[in-house]
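Dear support,

I submitted the protein below through the web form. The confirmation email said the job was done, but the results page showed an empty box. After a refresh the structure appeared. I'm attaching both so you can tell me whether what I see now is the final result or a partial one.
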Amino acid sequence: MKYFEDFIENVTELDMTSVSKMSKTVIAQGLKRAVRMTNISLRYIATDELVFALSAAAASNDINDQVTTNRLRLVDISFSSDVTDASVEILVNEAMNLERCNLR
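What the results page shows now:
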């Protein structure tokens, strides 16, 4: 799944709603590299592991030695039963430009 990790580094919007056949570990590894992400939906599939990985990318300010600003604005993790308050708190603290986080 190296392709997914390389691919996601340049993605700005991603909808993985209800993706159930892909390993959460592979998704998490990719999300750690999603430094250009502005909008993402992990509806129904989010876990603490995925939220922590997204937080790590949001906290990253270095892409190939180029300084960037955190771009994450919308996160949809609604209807995901494996997400705790702790992971959401870290996400909102790391994603400084976050405007909306859907939790249901």
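Response: this is the final, complete result; the empty box was a page-load delay. The two ends are 30 Å apart (CA to CA).
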